[in-house]
Amino acid sequence: MLPNDRPLTIAEAADLIRDGKLSPVGLVEDCLRRIDALDGTYHAFIEVLREPALAAARAAEAEIAAGRWRGPMHGVPIGLKDIYETKGVRTTGHSRVAADYVPTEDATTTAMLEASGAINLGKLATWEFAIGGPSFDLPWPPAGNPWRHDHDPGGSSSGTGTAVATGMVLGGMGSDTGGSIRFPAALCGIAGIKPTYGRVSRAGVMPLSFSLDHAGPMAWTVEDCAIMMQALAGHDPRDPASAELPVPDYRAALTGDAKGLRVGVLRQFYETDAPADADCAAAFDAALAALADLGATVVELPALSPMQDYLAAAFLISRSEAFAIHEETLRASPGLYGEVARERMLMGALVTGADYVQAMRRRRELCVEFAAAMRGVDVVALPTLPTAAPKLGAYGKHFTIDRPLYTTPFNLTGSPALSVCDGFSAEGLPFGLQIVGHPFDEATVMRVGDAYEKATQWRGMRPEPLAMAAE
């Protein structure tokens, strides 16, 4: 798999590794060659763990040869958004504040992936502390879009989206407080799932908002996300929000069809409250038609409160909690932060206790409202974002106020939500289809997304990063 060849999916690599037809060492070496060829242009990595990854690959190869194959993640190269703590390896948050921070233990998810046999190729670019970006005043540049390197890959899991789409890694970890898995998944043309709040541990992941943070996987296909979810889901006493519930077989739930499922359409959000671009809406309508062809029944959801109510509650909660987390350092050393992160966090200082209480009260009302709207449907569908990727640097400090994301309401509700590619703009930049489910029913969400992917041509279309790098 040389840099200009089609990268393997996790599922493909897993079968080849299990059958002794692909060496984990060779796979890691191919990914490292791709990083060497591309990352000077795309800036997906903060740090590449070349020698540790090769050592882990050699160990995986020996273990598999001895008949101790751990499962489909064994020997598979991945990357971690640089807010996931890694024992003995810097975890910077893409910030001067933590530029020299070396954790003494792994995040729970880091350890779970290692236990599954996954091989960490390195730490991936993010927006500063998952809030401040894209920024150009930090020690590392922002990542570029894999389809056009001068366009934005979305945030805050920007490096993960870019690394997966360009094949520098086969999968990676993101985090999602207002859309930061689904936002870059949509703009990079990959799959990314925000699990239900409490399904995947956040212990050892740098926090932004205790009430809204989610951790989850990003990969080229939904099937790959399902494989990663199997390694990640489960109760963790280190995370006080972690749910103690059974974990289903996610991959077994991928039936390839949507027969008998009811898909509710949330037109209000993207047609009335914050209208999507015409080509984005057209791609979504075509996706609905494809789901109907797969056996789903498409129904219109009843009217909800304005999307702005969901966004306002989430904004007050996230900004006040982010300020509470960073207050001490912001007061002592504000200049260590980039301008965008500093200004976004400092807004939380203006949120009163009464504001916060009212936002939490309104959150509960909106959760009840959305749960009622989902009665009688299995999933809800809408676009992930209103537009394709703009030029890198075009997003302003408060861009989500001007052009809201359709992702944030489902951080407020804690619902599982997936983004998959559902087409391209005239410029060749991807759009995203968002699929939202009932709490702890990631299996159905991924079943719908997987069936859609397999019925459409989008997974056969990869960016041509070497050609773009030469522009």
From TrEMBL:
SUPFAM superfamilies: Amidase signature (AS) enzymes
Ligase among keywords: no
Keywords annotated in UniProt: Transferase
UniProt-listed Gene3D superfamilies: Amidase signature (AS) domain
Record has Transmembrane as a keyword: no
Transmembrane segments: none
GO molecular function, one term: transferase activity
PROSITE patterns: AMIDASES
Domain annotation Amidase: ranges: 27-445
The protein's name in its UniProt record: Aspartyl-tRNA(Asn)/glutamyl-tRNA(Gln) amidotransferase subunit A
Species of provenance: Rubrimonas cliftonensis
